[in-house]
Amino acid sequence: MQMDAVDQRIIALLVADARASYAEIGAKVSLSAPAVKRRVDRLRSTGVIKGFTAVIEPSAVGWTTEAFVELFCTGRTTPAQITVATRRHPEVIGAYTVSGQADALVHLRAADIGHLEQALERLRAEPFVTSTRSMVVLSRLVEAPTAIPLSS
Amino acid sequence: MQMDAVDQRIIALLVADARASYAEIGAKVSLSAPAVKRRVDRLRSTGVIKGFTAVIEPSAVGWTTEAFVELFCTGRTTPAQITVATRRHPEVIGAYTVSGQADALVHLRAADIGHLEQALERLRAEPFVTSTRSMVVLSRLVEAPTAIPLSS
DNA sequence: GGTGAAAAATTGACACC
DNA sequence: GGTGTCAATTTTTCACC
């Protein structure tokens, strides 16, 4: 899809604050509120903006434990299989196929270590998983929303 | 902070759609719009809701390459040092200290492989980094916003 | 792309429990 | 502490140019 510098700035402003009003955004990009809305509607319908979400402090909702788990899979495992399998587990908040020794990297979030262990066991029970390697998150140092290159 | 089931449901609804109106949310949790707003204001001021953001398709804004990099650091490296160092690099969209062989895991997003390589070189140049192990993301299978346990 | 008007949402004041 | 109702203001969302 075609996007100009104004679209990029609107996106950056919405990433910074998804509840900013169109008038507020318009003031910063020198556009009227309706013009901003039309652009945002277009960005949404073309899939550039996938949605709007609240950023939550995980510990506040009872998720205190995170881990990254490398999956080593059997030879014939497809990304689709991994997708289906990982989506089944509510603890999975991210999953990626990767280059390197592992086949996939899975990001888990659980209530506590016990819950994490349980989720990990379930994941390891998937038929295509041959082995795993876990990294439990000790502290989140950086966690930024999708950064947008600012075209100044 | 103290949170009841209604707060949890409001949070879940805002994670699903940060631009939902208070009246719309109120209809789903059986509360008036002002009551919802008061709760949201409280959740924001207490840091449970850290903010609202737009979810962007990374490829649409020119970020086509992602990687996870394990950092192996010198013995006396502190999390604070890693935080400061990783925040300097705009390509870092996540950083965590982890248990296991590596000391930290860094999530990078770059325009292309060349850009990623460049960012990786800069990261490896940090004085406390002894070695790295990279996993380039081949495909994003799952990428969910902070999942909230639904108290049904 | 802007303007203007109607509809809807936000926000604060107030009473109530 | 919490809620709902009401009114003023602001925002959204249409027309139409």
UniProtKB/TrEMBL annotation, chains A, B:
GO terms for cellular component: cytosol. Keywords: DNA-binding, Transcription, Transcription regulation. GO terms for molecular function: sequence-specific DNA binding. GO terms for biological process: response to amino acid. It holds the Pfam family AsnC_trans_reg. InterPro entries: AsnC-type_HTH_dom, Dimeric_a/b-barrel, Tscrpt_reg_AsnC-like, Tscrpt_reg_AsnC/Lrp_C, WH-like_DNA-bd_sf, WH_DNA-bd_sf. The keyword Ribosomal protein does not apply. It comes from the Bacteria. Residues 3-64 form the HTH asnC-type domain. Gene3D superfamilies: 3.30.70.920, Winged helix-like DNA-binding domain superfamily/Winged helix DNA-binding domain. The keyword Transcription regulation applies. PANTHER family: LEUCINE-RESPONSIVE REGULATORY PROTEIN, TRANSCRIPTIONAL REGULATORY PROTEIN (PROBABLY ASNC-FAMILY)-RELATED. This is AsnC family transcriptional regulator.
